# Entry
Amino acid sequence: MKRIVLAEEEVTYLKEFTKKGQKSARALTRAHVLLLIHKGEKETTIA
# Structure
């Protein structure tokens, strides 16, 4: 899987998104995966 580069604002938004309020499980999972890919985690680690 390719590494993605998120802007600092996007990282901040995703971190806040995963910490606050009621969100669907799918949306939370996608946000966590985006943050992990941004950090450079390997696909096998994420799966």
Residues 8-46 form one domain. The first helix runs from residue 8 to 19. The mean pLDDT is 91.
